[in-house]
Amino acid sequence: MKWLRNDRGAALVMVMLIITLFLVFIMTMLTQVTNTARQVATTEEQADARLVAEMGVDYVEFILAQGRMDAETLEELLNEIDMELDKDREFRIEVTRSQSGSLDYKSVGRSGNQDVEIENTITIRTESGKKDVET
Fold first, then answer.
1. Which tens digits make up the pLDDT trace of 15-54?
2. Which of 21, 29, 95, 129 is the most exposed, fewest CB within 10 Å of its CB?
3. 93, 105 in Cβ contact below 8 A?
4. What HEC string does the chain produce?
5. In a 10 Å sphere around its CB, with 0-12 CB exposed, 13-18 middle and 19+ buried, how is residue 50 labelled?
6. Nearest to 41 by CA among 111, 120, 133, 128
């Protein structure tokens, strides 16, 4: 029973235990930092995708400000819009015609892996032989 009272090696066991606790703490912190960085990147992509989708709406408003056009011409023109801003960002316009005669369009902005959609309606009214476009 002499070996039970021997303290040799106890310091090694304590050092190994402390190193293990430090490693667990460091790994936990590293995981949290990595997850936070990923969340920040996703949030930035979502915000950027919303701005790109709003850019699509502004582009449609710019086209409407260029002059008066009938619903068919406007629908064809809007359906052709698919703009790539750079390798990670783009917007496209999707147009559908409602039964009331208005054009419903959706601007879809993409940034990285995130898509954001903004919906809007264009109403085309005819008064005394001329057409008026209203958004």
1. 999 999 999 999 999 999 999 999 999 999 999 999 999 9
2. 129
3. yes
4. CHHHHCCCCHHHHHHHHHHHHHHHHHHHHHHHHHHHHHHHHHHHHHHHHHHHHHHHHHHHHHHHHCCCCCHHHHHHHHHCCEEECCCCEEEEEEEEECCCCCEEEEEEEEECCEEEEEEEEEEEEEECCEEEEEC
5. middle
6. 111
